[in-house]
Design brief:
Blueprint: H1 2-20, E1 24-28, E2 32-34, E3 39-45, E4 50-53, E5 60-75, E6 78-91, E7 95-99, E8 103-106, E9 109-112, E10 116-121, H2 133-139, E11 141-147, E12 158-166, E13 171-179, E14 186-191, E15 198-203, E16 206-220, E17 224-228, E18 232-244, E19 250-260, E20 264-268, E21 284-293, E22 297-298, E23 304-314, E24 330-332, E25 336-344, E26 347-360, E27 364-368, E28 372-377, E29 382-387, E30 391-395, E31 405-407, E32 414-416, H3 446-474, H4 476-497, H5 502-521, H6 530-539, H7 544-560, H8 567-587
Parallel strand pairs: 2-10, 21-28, 22-30
Antiparallel strand pairs: 1-3, 3-6, 4-8, 5-6, 7-10, 8-9, 11-12, 12-16, 13-18, 14-16, 15-16, 17-20, 18-19, 21-23, 23-26, 24-26, 25-26, 27-30, 28-29, 31-32
């Protein structure tokens, strides 16, 4: 009797332990939400069961589900199993609501979840759903436009740096520009970004990774409040889910998100009117000004160059240089404008100049009066004027222009009248020194005999090339290979032309790869399964890594038709295709 009691006790203990190992519970994404938010409810069990019955979800509308997910993994020799039924609910109004019990049968036993109470409040400013992949992507991906100065002067340089911040919780697989800002009220210059670099930083106090996508220098051309249009991107975001693969690794869901940097408004101040010079032409920055000549002594009818130049930092391309005024005895030609300006994050820097060609006609001294240049200095916020020195040109020899002196109304400097002289054109030759041309005869010349014998010598060449042409035409197999090879080169060049046009690029790339296989492996498109291609490349002693790269290119062409791709990614695929085809050619 005691023995039976012991066995019965052991049996009940084992049964209770077995039953205790089964779990079935209800989990909600949040217990308090706004009426404009959504709720996710998961019914999770650690053992497979039958006849699952959900509750009625009183007070909610089911907008998604049931979605079923199963996780089955082995870790350190121990099996871990999980099965989940998920529902997405939308509240019908405010109040406290109870998610009632769900039931399921596991090993002949009926299990029930515990009721869960949630509170629905008024609408929130920004709906949140921590289990929604679209929301997770939105919360962890930010495009920011950083403006260097929000209150600049007219024609003062400001910079806009666009940064894409990515949280460690997600990863970005691809991106492309959807809409670029126009900068209609600004003079703009984009700074060349040679390479994108991933850096670590913070966004609103949290650790983020970021990459600088674009840098632009802007010079406002109007005063008042100006709008900087947003940059808009389409980004492919990989968001981790609750599901896992058979090895226990977390599965990811790819979401295409559109992110924008947002409109930025700056208030542009007008330049002060107090102390503004009459000759001010809009130069803003820090400059140096000078007027120079390449010579100050010369003879009449010789030329000299006079250069008016401004150097420094500021809006060098956005104002006019002062004009050079010369005495009437110097013949002046239209100036040649030259710019050596570089643009970086601080704005424009370098120099601009106007070079005048001057030609004196008579002997004498010609003063080039001083020239003034005015600009607005941003450091002191005042106007400044720079005046060049007077330059005297001494014409040592030449015709005398007479003793009559005139006074210029503008600069009150003595000038000689320009008069005609009999020696004005003395530098022109009056004798041409022409010589008779000796006449040569074509008959019996070297050219005559070459033109006579060349057709006879060309007959053997025609016969040789004709024979080669017949052999080439009769080589049906070779012609087919050459045609396919020609098509491959054609489509690869077509792919290069379509860089930036994702659909056309990958269609042309796929055609090029297929026609290359036709040329080298002598197979048709209908027979191009990935396994057969890999087997044929292996039979031709092509390295396994190269064959894998070729197959990966084909898969990339198929996959890229349905997912967004950037120009840099297309360029990488094109370079990879060129390299792989060249490597296979060498190994074949």
């Amino acid at each position: 009797m005691k023995l039976k009691l012991i066995f019965l006790t052991l049996f009940l203990t084992v049964t209770q332990l077995t039953v205790a190992q089964v779990t079935f519970e209800a989990k909600v994404s949040k217990k308090k939400l706004g009426v404009n938010e959504r709720l996710r409810v998961d019914f999770e069990m650690n053992k497979d069961g039958d006849n699952f019955t959900p509750p009625s979800f009183l007070g909610f509308t089911v907008v998604g589900g049931p979605n079923q997910s199963i996780s089955n993994s082995w870790i350190n020799g121990k099996r871990s199993y999980s099965k989940t039924f998920s529902y997405f609910l939308e509240p019908r109004g405010r109040g406290k609501f109870t998610i009632k019990q769900a039931t399921i049968e596991i090993d002949g036993q009926t299990y029930k979840t515990l009721p869960v109470t949630v509170e629905v409040t008024g609408a929130v400013d920004k709906p949140k759903d921590g289990n929604n992949t679209d929301f997770v992507a939105s919360e962890n991906l930010h495009l920011v436009a950083e403006v260097s100065k929000a209150n600049p002067f007219l024609n003062e340089a400001i910079t806009v740096v666009y940064k894409l911040y990515v949280s460690p919780r997600i990863s970005v697989s691809n991106w492309r520009e959807l809409d670029s800002p126009k900068y209609s009220d600004f003079w703009s210059q984009a700074i060349d970004m040679k390479q994108l670099k991933i850096e670590n930083g913070e966004y609103k106090g949290e650790p983020y990774r970021y990459v600088v996508l674009r840098k632009t220098v802007l010079y406002p051309q109007k005063t008042g409040k100006l709008n900087i249009e947003p940059l808009t991107l389409t980004v492919s975001v990989d968001v981790p889910t609750k599901r896992r693969d058979i090895f226990g690794g977390r599965l990811y869901s790819t979401v295409n998100k559109t992110v924008a940097a947002g409109n930025r408004t700056i208030n542009v101040k007008p330049l002060p009117t107090q102390g503004k010079p009459d000759d001010f032409t809009g130069a803003v920055g820090s400059f140096e000004f000078k007027v120079t000549t390449n010579k100050t002594e010369l003879d009449a009818t010789e030329s000299l160059d006079a250069k008016v130049s401004v150097s420094g930092n500021g809006n060098l391309k956005l104002f006019d240089l002062p004009k050079l005024v010369v005495p009437s005895g110097l013949e002046q030609y239209e100036p040649q404008h030259n710019e050596r300006v570089r643009t970086n994050l601080t704005g424009m820097g370098g120099n601009i100049s106007d070079t005048y060609t001057l030609v004196p006609q008579y002997k004498g001294k010609y003063p080039i009066p001083a020239v003034s240049f005015s600009y607005f200095d941003l450091k002191t916020e005042t106007y400044k004027r720079i005046t060049s020195d007077e330059i005297v040109i001494n014409v040592k020899t030449g015709p005398d222009g007479g003793n009559t002196i005139t006074t210029s109304e503008s600069n009150s400097t003595g000038k000689k009248l320009v008069t005609q002289a009999s020696t004005q054109f003395r530098f022109l030759k009056s004798s041409a020194n022409l010589k008779p041309v000796q006449r040569k005869h074509f008959f019996k010349s070297t050219a005559y005999w070459i033109s006579l014998t060349a057709p006879l010598l060309a007959i053997p060449l025609f016969l040789f090339f004709g024979k080669k042409r017949e052999e080439r035409l009769s080589d049906v197999k070779g012609n087919r290979v050459r045609k396919a090879d020609k098509l491959a080169r054609k489509y690869l060049s077509e792919a290069k032309k379509n860089l930036g046009n994702q659909k056309e690029f990958y269609i042309a790339m796929e055609r090029a790869l297929h026609n290359y296989l036709k040329a080298k492996l002598h197979i048709q498109t209908s027979d191009m399964s990935k396994d057969r291609i890999q087997r044929l490349l292996k039979e031709q002693d092509v390295e396994a890594t190269i064959a894998i790269e070729f197959i990966a290119l084909l898969e990339s062409c198929e996959f890229a038709r349905y997912t967004p791709s950037s120009t840099s990614a297309m360029q990488q695929d094109y370079d990879k295709a060129s390299r792989v085809i060249a490597t296979i050619d060498k190994q074949l």
